[in-house]
Specification:
395 residues; alpha/beta; eight-stranded mixed β-sheet; six-stranded parallel β-sheet
């Protein structure tokens, strides 16, 4: 029997691409490949800030997955984008008129990609669109004929309340939520409880063997360190993290180092106790997390947080921003982490973690159990395949 043909649509795709939804899409494509004929539809962009074309247009293979790339016709102009944002925000009537322009400016603007989806819908049994925010999802879902599944990766941010997003949440044939908190938020916001859905996060695969000492030697780290993994930018709370970390060091007068792992899009911090690595390999990432005393995630807006789950799978406790409902729920359900909302709380919680090795070990065990129970690929793929195939047991 011939496999069903699935198209996964995401704004960027590639082993060099740094981003949560992009990494999730790549892992989902690779794990669905044994069951379906998978093709990824995406752009030639690598950098989400400018959407400049980096990859060649056309077909290629990435880790065994067929990828079809389309050029971006307009790079993102930051000043024009900010102007549209202000118009939408401060002049509501004008804002409603500029929503379509805003989505085009948000990008990646690739009409050729949308035309391809419209003209070739009959070739695919199902389209899966990942991340609600971007041009490809907004216009791709309207262009696609036949079965359409949305993986919104949604959270409570100002953009999601724009009218232009309403239709996709109402008209999807199915929705895959990453957490119960995301599902609750979307259903309250869009009144779409009648849409078939599942809650299925991402399977977390970490290496059986990690080499934290290799990472320590590479970056000449002798003592304890905490780590942040992800895009290093103000929007992810990294500026505040630097503030809070420096206050912790000032109060405790110790040599705890902070490792920032990922692409930097803010002013590069200059400090002997702060280590920036840039974008690293998967091996280096796991080695670094495994050697840390804790993983820190300062972001207020998360729909899943792969780095938190990877730290838990490696037995490393987490300290996360308590303003994020998803991160708070991870900590409460697992017993593998702490939350903070103020600088004083950050300092106190980090101090408690660093002072008590047994406390950290217990959290580590809890984290491994949590990931094993809720974030195995076997469980997640069963749910996802049921939704794709339209089996009756789902809503």
């Amino acid at each position: 029997m011939e496999k069903k043909r699935l198209a996964l649509v995401n704004q960027r795709y590639g082993t060099e691409v740094n981003g949560g939804s992009e990494y999730y899409t790549r892992m989902l494509a690779e794990h669905l490949a044994p069951f379906y004929n998978i093709e990824v539809i995406t752009t030639c962009a690598k950098d989400y800030e400018t959407w400049e074309n980096y990859y060649e247009p056309g077909e290629c293979m990435v880790e065994g997955i067929k990828v079809r790339r389309f050029p971006v016709q307009k790079t993102r102009k930051q000043m024009g984008f900010l102007w549209l944002n202000r118009m939408r925000h401060y002049i509501p009537p004008a804002g409603r008129l500029t929503e379509k322009q805003w989505v085009a400016a948000q990008g990646p603007y690739s009409p050729d990609c949308i035309d391809y989806i419209r003209d070739n819908s009959e070739k695919y049994d199902c389209f899966i669109f990942v991340t609600y925010l971007y041009y490809l999802t907004v216009h791709g879902m309207k262009a696609a004929q036949g079965r359409k599944i949305l993986i919104p990766t949604a959270h409570d941010e100002e953009y999601i309340y724009m009218n232009i997003y309403w239709d996709m949440f109402q008209e999807a044939d199915g929705i895959i939520y990453l957490t119960e908190e995301e599902k609750e938020f979307v259903e309250q916001t869009f009144k779409n409880t009648s849409v078939r859905n599942i809650v299925a996060g991402m399977g977390i695969d970490v290496p059986q063997i990690v080499k934290p000492q290799k990472f320590r030697q590479q970056y000449q780290i002798e003592g304890d360190y905490i780590i942040y993994v992800g895009r290093i930018e103000e929007g992810k709370g990294c500026g505040q993290l630097l503030e809070y970390y420096k206050e912790y060091v000032r109060k405790n007068k110790n040599s705890l180092k902070l490792v920032l792992m990922g692409k930097i899009t803010m002013k590069n911090p200059v400090d002997d106790d702060i280590i920036t690595t840039g974008f690293v390999s998967e091996e280096d990432k796991y080695n670094a997390i495994a050697g840390a005393s804790a993983l820190i995630l300062p972001s207020e807006h998360e729909s899943l947080s792969i780095s938190v789950l990877e730290a838990m799978a490696l037995g490393i406790p987490v300290l996360v921003n308590g303003k994020s409902a998803v991160l708070t729920a991870h900590c409460e359900k697992s017993g593998a982490g702490c939350t903070y909302q103020t600088c004083d709380e950050f300092v106190q919680k980090l101090d408690a973690l660093m002072r008590d090795d047994a406390y950290r070990r217990d959290m580590g065990k809890n984290g491994k159990r949590y990931v094993d129970e809720y974030y195995s690929w076997q469980t997640i793929l069963t749910q996802v395949c049921s939704l794709i195939d339209g089996r009756n047991e789902l809503r």
